[in-house]
Design brief:
Layout: E1 2-7, H1 14-22, E2 27-31, H2 32-38, H3 47-54, H4 67-74, H5 78-106, E3 111-115, E4 130-135, H6 138-149, H7 153-161, H8 166-172, E5 175-178, H9 183-195
Parallel strand pairs: 1-3, 1-4, 2-3, 4-5
Helix pairs in contact: 3-5, 6-7
Amino acid sequence: MLFIGITGGVGAGKSEILKHLKKNPRFLVEEADEIARSFYIKGSRIYDKLISTLGEEVKAPDGSIDKKKMASMIFNDEKKKNAVNSLIHPAVREYVIEKKREAELSGSYDIYFLEAALLIECGYDKICDELWYIYAEPSVRRERLKRARGYSDEKTGSIIKNQLPDGEYRKYCAHIIDNSGGLEGSLREIDRIISGYSC
C-alpha cells in the first residue's frame, strides 16, 4: 500500500481533488483537520489534556470542546496555542501511523491519502512514500476564498503569508498538480500519475 501526503496552500482546491479520490473504494482518503476534530469529543485520547490546558470554559453544552471558543482563546495567546498544538499534532501523527498499519493489514486499500496543510512542517515527508503539492495561482486562490468563504483580501493575504512559500512545497513534493484552471485538467493529471503506479 502506498502512503501519499497531499498538501498545498489555502484556496488551492484540495477539497475537490479529495472528493474525486474518495470515489475509488481502493483509496483510503483522510484529512488531518477531520482527525484533529475527532479529539474534541469527550473521551478522545487527548480530551482531558486539552481541557486541562484550556480550562472548563472551552466546553460546549454536550461536553465536547467548542472549536470557536478554543480558537478565540488561543488566537492572541502564543503560549496557549503552542501548548494546544503540542497535543494535537503528535496525536494526529500517532493516529495516522496506527491507521496506516491497520489499512496495510486489512489489504483493502492500494493507496492511503492524507491531506494536511502542515504536512511538511509536521515532518510527514519522513513517513509518507511521497508528497503531492496542489498548486494554484495566488490570484485564483484569493478569488476562490472570496467566493466560497466570503474572505476579505486582507484575511486571505494574512493566511497565505503564514503558509509555506511556493518554493518550499516544490522542494519536498514529488508531484505538482497545477489547479489554477479547470478542475478537469487537474483530475486527469492525478489519474495519469496514479496509473503509473503498480498498485
